[in-house]
Amino acid sequence: MADAPSTPGIHHVTCIAGDPQQNIDFWVETLGLRLVKRSVNQDDPSTYHFFFADAEGTPGTSMTFFPWENLRQGKVGSGQVSRTAFRVPEGSLEFWEDRFDDYGVDYEDRIERFGETVLPFYDPDGLPVELVAVEIPADDPTVPWTEFVPETAAIRGFHSVTLWLADPHQTEEVLRTMGLKATGTEESPGDTPGDERTRFEAAGTVGQYVDVLPTVEGARQGHGTVHHVAFQTPSDADQTAMRQAVSAHSVRPTQQIDRHWFRSVYFREPNGVLFELATSGPGYTSDEPLDALGEELILPGTFADQREQIEADLSDVTIPRADAVDADAD
Length: 330
What we know:
Layout: E1 10-17, H1 20-30, E2 34-41, E3 44-53, E4 62-67, E5 80-89, H2 93-103, E6 111-113, E7 116-122, E8 128-134, E9 158-165, H3 168-177, E10 181-186, E11 197-201, E12 209-214, E13 225-232, H4 236-246, E14 257-258, E15 263-268, E16 274-278, H5 307-313, H6 322-329
Parallel strand pairs: 1-4, 5-8, 9-12, 13-16
Antiparallel strand pairs: 1-13, 2-3, 3-4, 5-9, 6-7, 7-8, 10-11, 11-12, 14-15, 15-16
């Protein structure tokens, strides 16, 4: 009998933003992530698709955005990823609080959750985000990007996502089918009193946690909300096995879709959160050299034939550079 499928963890998280330049400035300059890919939404090429990640675009590190400028403000609620958390090295949260003060970032007091220290904050669109201080192992697969933030504080990929769900039970069964294991439950600060947060752990080291929290809070998709969360299924065979496994839960996974840098399968889990299964390859260096990631507007497939029209419809954006920022400060 074949082994049951098991995801190493989160592959990427895709969110909805407003102003594209504001989005780039915050995630590159303020948070210190690398813009590893600048493209368009392959289902709506009238808007950008930005990918922010570690220095090499390692699976488990990329936060991506659709900056739909004319969309309304969203509201986080049931059936959504309510918070996305990133790993940072132990001892770096004071650095981040000072940086948030300098850049005018809206953040909250630190809290303790499952024995770890968490710093909640919000991006300019109101997206709830967290930094979690962890020990980064010597053989960690992520590669810190240090143009704006020193290695001792640099974000090192995902820590977790929190799912707000009206009825967690069915979703928890899907997570177990995907190979995640429940490792603990606690009532934690910042959550609704009386509600218990359950943590599920995947097999890998980056983006390995999914926290489940019951809520009936009403949701509205828009600026400052998560569009979907993608989980790693490194090979096509892994993805096929996972697709077959989750189908047993009355979800309706799509056929495989070529997303140029990875191949994807999508489905809504029983509470309505959009899940994606994403392969590891071909990867972000399949169409740009490593030292030039994010420099050009990449238009995959047939979109390349529409470059003139697509570029005319997109607003101009500038990638922050540390040397330019330093010169402006002098």
